[in-house]
Amino acid sequence: MNNFDWTSFTKRIAIKASLADIYKAWTVPADLERWFLERAAFRAEEAELAEREQSAASGMLYDWYWYLDTNPLHGKILEANGKDFLQFTFEGNSLVDLRLSTLDEYVIIELRHYNIPQDDHSKQYIRLGCSSGWAFYLHNLKSVYEGGIDLRNKDPKLGVMINN
């Protein structure tokens, strides 16, 4: 494990969908809730929540809620170009870059999570935990957009599982 990179990781997936739809899937609250979150909200600093159909813009703050977890994740959209790139803070000061490109009928998503702190808690919960979490949610994004099936566990009586 001496050569293991604890500071970053990258995940890639191809999805048969339009570039515009996949960009919206990451930036519009109603679309984020289709595959990723129970509830998503964006707002400008010191402002009201953005409209549910409004796309996130650079400088906006977010409040994200997962199913079966009452603690929201708060962060900031650092860059949103409206087409194929999004950068946001995640789990504190770590960063996520999301690059979208096309190849034939596919949108290629490349998600890079980096700037991960080196303490043991961050290694376990951000580097390792988020790596498996992003893998699941990217698969769920593909499932929802290609087949219409949401793989998330939303039933509280089942408790925490690999799909929530």
Structural class: alpha+beta
Query: Would you identify the regions where 5 or more consecutive residues have pLDDT less than 50?
Result: none
What kind of oligomer do you see? single chain
Number of self-contained structural domains: 1
CATH topology-level fold name: Alpha-D-Glucose-1,6-Bisphosphate, Chain A, domain 4
What is the H-and-E element order?
A: EHHEEEEEEH
| Number of contiguous helices | 3
List keywords for this structure.
164 residues, alpha+beta, Alpha-D-Glucose-1,6-Bisphosphate, Chain A, domain 4, 3 helices, 7 strands, globular
Description of the structure:
- The chain is of the alpha+beta class and 164 residues long.
- It has one domain: 2-Layer Sandwich (Alpha-D-Glucose-1,6-Bisphosphate, Chain A, domain 4), CATH 3.30.530.20.
- It has helices at residues 19-27, 29-35, 120-147, and strands spanning 9-16, 39-43, 61-65, 73-80, 85-90, 94-103, 106-114.
- The mean pLDDT is 94.
